[in-house]
């Protein structure tokens, strides 16, 4: 076995030491839940009768309590393209469970909003908060104590983190994630980006823009760019929580049904009553969390996971911070060239070797923990690829070389020597700067600030020509407590146009950018946020701001002492945003995961 890279070893040791007490408390908690918590055997006759009343042919088995009953928690809806294929999964899962001597019931559904639909709209203010709602809905689903295993059906942005956080509170149970796969490739992402910028400049019509968007997002399955949804699939494989190579098989592929079947059979085999129990809370340990971060860096994944992974870790009693991301980024090379870092989409990534290639390279270089506990037998299985053999799925070794060196590179000759996710900090706070999609010549930007409180005001200033200069665009009061921390991806085309005109431009914000944010330098997730007196609230137009990924600084030369914080905009109303006020008001900072639920629970 290859020796663990010293930086990976040191960061893991740092996390273990920092998490020693909280992890022990968590493990004690799930042990108690497993031994004495509410479970099917403790239900009264009335409780149990309610639980199996509508279970049809499975009723005798569920009533007898002699076999695993799998709780299906589904994020199905048929508006969200990635989740539309899940509509028929429950009936398939019930059949597959019976084959394995188990039963299955839909325990509950969770909301699944689409950031692609709400991007730049009022509904985006609900997006991050929906992760807490999903986690709580998962807990509601599993609270009935009818289940000995959990099948989690979710793919997209806040949905996978929410499902995992909720399931970790039932960490004494085994759990598997079951994906549905990406849609086939449509209009190339680079071409879509080009037309967006033309539209921002007034050089393309709305009809032309809609044609381009519809040609890109054209069918069932996950969007094909490497944003948060597909980064979710990556980290689930890096943690061994999803079957090897199952993430990026298209919904219509003949293997898809076989992979779901294999996942359910595997779940039935790792229950508490079998020979190889693998409770979720033991799988998600410090090493698995480090593997998730390493995978994120090696593939150029979504910056949203600088928020989601700390929240997931906390749910398992593990404490990570952006310093851990930054240190790992210095050691983990970028070996994937997928949009927005490159031109290829996830289908090209899969064809070139996909996650099996990535994991094999990382393990071979000692950059990932090979000894994590997974839903399989060993993490080495995740270096293989699934193939259909008759009616079953088998896993076979990958070819020795990448299928496309322009998409997947070996660790020895990476696309970049580091993972491209930097911590920048200074007198404006701490922030994340994703360098992997930004030309190195733009890693340092120093310019006067132009300060905004609303992203639409940025676009108004852009259209008026007020930003045609070197400028640091500051968009504040976008943090979790201010308005729910929406993504500001709507700004990407306009800022890209300014950059293409030859100006030095960067974005500085306490909000988020999309998982597909690209070529414009950006310091995002600034903590502390502006609301409540964070230093960003003291900036004024014209203050010189320096953002530098080379030395990790985010600094203004202006003297902020004695200034009065800017008055924040009114709390958001409409589109249900007022219903999320409690989540906003009690949320903690982005670096801790931006979660009101975890903060209130003392986790």
TrEMBL record:
UniProt-listed InterPro entries: 6-phosphgluc_deHydtase, Dihydro-acid_dehy_C, DiOHA_6PGluconate_deHydtase_CS, ILV_EDD_C, ILV_EDD_N, IlvD/EDD_N
Pfam families in the record: ILV_EDD_C (PF24877), ILVD_EDD_N (PF00920)
E.C. designation(s): 4.2.1.12
Biological process terms in GO annotation: D-gluconate metabolic process; Entner-Doudoroff pathway through 6-phosphogluconate
Free-text remark on how the cofactor is bound: Binds 1 [4Fe-4S] cluster.
GO molecular function, a single term: metal ion binding
Catalytic activity of the protein: 6-phospho-D-gluconate = 2-dehydro-3-deoxy-6-phospho-D-gluconate + H2O
Keyword tRNA-binding: no
GO cellular component term of the entry, any: cytosol
Dihydroxy-acid/6-phosphogluconate dehydratase N-terminal domain segment(s): 69-376
Family designation: Belongs to the IlvD/Edd family.
UniProt-listed HAMAP family: Edd
Functional note: Catalyzes the dehydration of 6-phospho-D-gluconate to 2-dehydro-3-deoxy-6-phospho-D-gluconate.
Protein name from the UniProt record: Phosphogluconate dehydratase
Lineage per the UniProt record: Bacteria, Pseudomonadati, Pseudomonadota, Alphaproteobacteria, Sphingomonadales
């Amino acid at each position: 076995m290859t020796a663990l890279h010293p930086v990976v070893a040191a960061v893991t040791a740092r996390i273990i030491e920092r998490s020693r007490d909280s992890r022990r408390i968590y493990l004690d908690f799930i042990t108690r839940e497993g031994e004495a918590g509410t479970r099917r055997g403790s239900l009264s006759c009335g409780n149990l009768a309610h639980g199996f009343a509508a279970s049809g042919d499975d009723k005798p088995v569920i009533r007898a309590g002699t076999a695993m009953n799998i709780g299906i928690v589904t994020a199905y809806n048929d508006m969200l393209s990635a989740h539309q294929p899940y509509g028929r999964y429950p009936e398939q899962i019930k059949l597959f469970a019976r084959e394995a001597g188990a039963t299955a019931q839909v325990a509950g559904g969770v909301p699944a909003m689409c950031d692609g639909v709400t991007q730049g709209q009022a509904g985006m203010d609900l997006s991050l908060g929906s992760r807490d709602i999903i986690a709580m809905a998962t807990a509601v689903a599993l609270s009935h104590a009818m289940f000995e295993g959990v099948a989690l059906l979710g793919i997209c942005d806040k949905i996978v983190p929410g499902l995992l956080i909720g399931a970790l509170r039932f960490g004494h149970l085994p759990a598997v994630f079951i994906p549905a796969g990406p849609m086939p490739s449509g209009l190339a992402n680079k071409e879509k980006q080009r037309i967006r910028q033309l539209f921002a400049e007034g050089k393309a019509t709305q009809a032309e823009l809609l044609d381009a968007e519809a040609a890109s997002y054209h069918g069932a399955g996950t969007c094909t760019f490497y944003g948060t949804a597909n980064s979710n699939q990556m980290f689930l494989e890096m943690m061994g929580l999803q079957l090897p190579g199952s993430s990026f098989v298209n919904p219509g592929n003949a293997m898809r049904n076989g992979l779901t079947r294999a996942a359910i059979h595997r779940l039935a085999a790792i229950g508490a009553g079998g020979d190889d129990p693998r409770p979720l809370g033991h799988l998600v340990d410090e090493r698995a969390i480090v593997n998730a971060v390493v995978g994120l860096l090696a593939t150029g994944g979504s910056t949203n996971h600088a928020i989601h992974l700390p929240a997931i870790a906390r749910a398992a009693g593990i404490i990570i911070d952006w310093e851990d991301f930054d240190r790992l980024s210095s050691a983990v090379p970028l070996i994937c060239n997928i949009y927005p870092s490159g031109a290829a989409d996830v289908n090209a990534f899969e064809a070139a070797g996909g996650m099996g290639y990535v994991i094999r390279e990382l393990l071979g270089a000692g950059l990932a923990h090979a000894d994590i506990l997974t839903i399989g037998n060993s993490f080495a299985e995740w270096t293989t690829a699934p193939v259909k053999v008759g009616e079953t799925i088998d896993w076979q070794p990958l070819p020795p070389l990448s299928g496309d060196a322009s998409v997947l590179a070996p660790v020895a000759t990476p696309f970049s020597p580091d993972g491209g996710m930097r911590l920048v900090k200074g007198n404006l706070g701490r922030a994340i700067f994703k360098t992997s999609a930004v030309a190195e010549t733009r890693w340092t930007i120093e310019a006067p600030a132009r300060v905004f409180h609303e992203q639409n005001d940025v676009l108004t200033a852009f259209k008026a020509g007020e930003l045609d200069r070197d400028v640091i665009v500051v968009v504040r009061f976008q943090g979790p407590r201010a308005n729910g921390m929406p993504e500001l991806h709507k700004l990407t085309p306009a800022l890209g146009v300014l950059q293409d005109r030859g100006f030095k431009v960067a974005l500085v914000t306490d909000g988020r950018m999309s998982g597909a944010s690209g070529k414009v330098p950006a310091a995002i997730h600034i903590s502390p946020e502006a609301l409540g007196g964070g230093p960003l609230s003291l900036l004024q137009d014209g203050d010189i701001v320096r953002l530098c990924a080379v030395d990790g600084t985010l600094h203004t030369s202006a003297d902020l002492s004695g200034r009065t914080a800017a008055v924040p905009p009114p709390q958001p109303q409409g589109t249900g945003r007022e219903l999320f006020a409690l989540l906003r008001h009690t949320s903690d900072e982005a670096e801790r995961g931006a979660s009101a639920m975890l903060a209130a629970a003392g986790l």
